[in-house]
């Protein structure tokens, strides 16, 4: 099968994967090194007076920053919104182009889930262009690109849901509304649908 | 702190682009992660971990007295347009052969360009080498690709 040099190179490298044993070994190495590093930090050494002053200064500065800044921590949804808007703006080339959702879905063999034609995309107004692999918060995801009647790009991201990574999200099956964020002139909607995280980016 | 499976595979593929052998790629990845864990920065930044892996690989090659990353020569032709290589078609068998004839540096450049979709300028920043060196490598990749396809056609013809 003939492909462009980019597609063929990508296919060549994507078939190179760590085995389950290799992954386990690497994760064990990560855990072991982190434990060793943590125990080295606890070696018994008498603290000098200057150390006590340094610790006190750090504590005071931390307390003052919390009191003075008083900003709530950025929620995971806002982080996701920023990441997907950045990806949307890059407009990286599509890896599969088709107007048929089934054809686009068939391309994504590396995902642990099937793509879903979400109920929240208006297929009368938006026309499917294709898709490509991407990631959201380091989780592998599918990026599906649409175009409206004005020629403006909309991007829908789908990823497997993991509460640790994505935090609690509204489920449309339970009648909840998507979370909405605004970033760099785009409206980002995030919701849960049939076990998948859906993120839609459109012009504000 | 945990590196996700997808990121570990990306790093493994990067190691494979340098070594072109899965066993060596795995060894390089293990050593790279070990060194990253001992570094002062433990943020999971793939670009930083790739840099550690690259430097380790250069050290390994030096010890084995191998030239992994050749210096840029002034008179080497440059690839003036990245689209001229993008438009080339290739079959999967030819890709395997191409990878075996490219140097480590050329394979790395091809990986960064095709898989991570970096431009020549972005590759130059990633590997800390002049943009001219990157363009020179892309030119050589294009030439070797043409030679590889020609050889493949001849094999089919004589077979």
Task: Describe it.
Chain A is built from six helices and eight strands, in the order βααααβαβββαβββ. The two termini of chain A are 42 Å apart. With 204 residues, chain A is an alpha+beta fold. Chain A has a seven-stranded antiparallel β-sheet, with helices on both faces. In chain A, β6 and β7 (186-193) form a beta hairpin. Helices cover 38% and strands 26% of the residues of chain A. The radius of gyration of chain A is 23 Å and the shape is globular. Chain B is 70% helix and 2% strand. Chain B has helices at residues 5-19, 22-38, 46-63, 83-86, 92-101, 104-114, 120-127, 131-158; one strand at residues 89-91. Chain B contains eight helices and one strand. By secondary structure, chain B is mainly α.
As a percent range, the share of strand residues of chain B is under 5%
Largest interface: A-B, 32 and 42 residues
Number of strands of chain A: 8
Largest sheet of chain A: 7 strands, antiparallel
Helix content of chain B: 55-70%
Quick description:
With 204 residues, chain A is α+β, with helices and mostly antiparallel strands. Chain A is built from 6 helices and 8 strands.
Key structural traits:
heterodimer; A: 204 residues; alpha+beta; seven-stranded antiparallel β-sheet; 6 helices; B: 159 residues; mainly alpha; 8 helices; 70% helix; globular
Question: Any chance you could write out the topology, listing elements then pairs?
Answer:
The complex is a heterodimer of chains A (204) and B (159).
Chain A: E1 2-4, H1 5-14, H2 20-40, H3 49-69, H4 76-90, E2 96-97, H5 101-107, E3 127-136, E4 139-147, E5 153-160, H6 163-166, E6 179-183, E7 186-193, E8 196-203
Antiparallel strand pairs in A: 2-3, 3-4, 4-5, 5-8, 6-7, 7-8
Chain B: H1 5-19, H2 22-38, H3 46-63, H4 83-86, E1 89-91, H5 92-101, H6 104-114, H7 120-127, H8 131-158
